[in-house]
Amino acid sequence: MGTTVEQALEQLKSTGVRMTPQRHAILSFLMHSMTHPTADEIYKSLSPSFPSMSVATIYNNLRLFVEAGLIRELTYGDDSSRFDADLSEHYHAICRSCGTIVDFDYPPLTDVEAAASKETGFKVEGHRMEIYGYCADCSARHTN
Fold it and tell me: What subcellular compartments does it reside in (predicted)?
């Protein structure tokens, strides 16, 4: 992963954002999480250490981090956005049963972007590819 928590915090401080222990904890949790957590999952994990922190605090800080370009919000048409601190070009495999999202590396599909631009006249800014199926745990449960 590219950016460290400290680099991200410095980037925020340089834009005038005050660094609170809660912000540090949320950012650290996201940068060390491989699960693309929802705001509620972050809240459940951090609330024992920060009993005064509300779900609204989590949401507000996630918005701040997205706007600062430190994390990416993944929306899939339901109400539970997931958050990813890995800003590198990568793709996601998503389990249709439990909702687990797993990163996988694949060469960026820039030829698809070029084809879309040529065919539609769009100035393409990026794309998102998702693979759907069943994770190993759910597959095992369905076949037994």
Answer: Cytoplasm
What is the distance between the alpha carbons of residues 63 and 45, in angstroms, rounded to a whole number?
Answer: 19
Q: Tell me whether residue 36 is annotated as binding.
A: no
Residue 13 carries which DSSP code? H
Residues 18 and 76 in one domain: yes
The reply to whether 98 sits in an annotated binding site is: yes
Measure the CA–CA gap between 52 and 29, rounded to whole angstroms: 17
Q: Which of 17-31, 39-53, 96-110, 118-132 has the highest mean pLDDT?
A: 39-53
pTM comes to 0.76
Which pLDDT tens digit goes with each residue over 40-51?
Answer: 999 999 999 999
142 is in an annotated binding site: no
**Owning domain of residue 73:** 5-84
